[in-house]
TrEMBL record:
Organism of derivation: Domibacillus iocasae
Alphabetical UniProt keywords: Coiled coil
Pfam family, one: Rok_N
The keyword Coiled coil belongs to this UniProt entry's keyword annotation: yes
Sequence ranges assigned to domain Rok N-terminal oligomerisation in this UniProt record: 4-44
Protein name: Competence protein ComK
Protein origin, superkingdom: Bacteria
Coiled coil: 26-53
Record InterPro entries: Rok_N_oligomerisation, WH_Rok
Residue stretches making up the Repressor Rok winged helix domain: 68-124
Keyword hit for DNA repair: no
């Protein structure tokens, strides 16, 4: 009859897809179970993870610090309110790294650079006087 894709074929295809997904999920769950069991065994034997021993550092990574410096330099250079999207594009062109959440990036930047102020709804400026 040709290349007619009937309901029976569609159901068979979907059942095969479900089988593949089910196998993949079972493998993922088994792997997670093994990881958790190993970690539990380590904890019961008194072995601590390297993260616990070191303690977590709250300082930003060097790459983030560089991105922040680029953003502040751009704001200083512009001397007028700048949209966050423009800052994001500039940083991505200058450094090649993507910023997925610009609001969070700028919120984290502000305590470190007090002269960077948010004017509202995605507008930022570097204040020279006053503070």
């Amino acid at each position: 009859m040709g290349v007619v894709f009937d309901e029976q074929q569609a159901i068979k295809l979907r059942l095969r897809q479900i089988d593949e997904i089910e196998l993949r999920m079972v493998k993922e769950l088994e792997l997670e179970r093994e990881i958790l069991s190993n970690r539990l065994r380590d904890l019961e034997n008194g072995v601590s993870s390297s993260n616990e021993e070191k303690g977590k550092s709250r300082r930003p990574q060097e790459s983030v610090r560089t991105l922040r410096e680029i953003a502040v330099a751009y704001l200083r250079e512009r001397k007028v309110p700048v949209r966050a999207v423009e800052i994001q594009r500039f940083i991505e062109r200058a450094n090649g790294k993507k910023i997925t959440n610009m609001s969070a990036f700028m919120r984290a930047l502000q305590p470190e650079y007090e002269r960077v102020q948010k004017l509202g709804r995605g507008l930022y400026i570097y204040e020279y006087g006053g503070k």
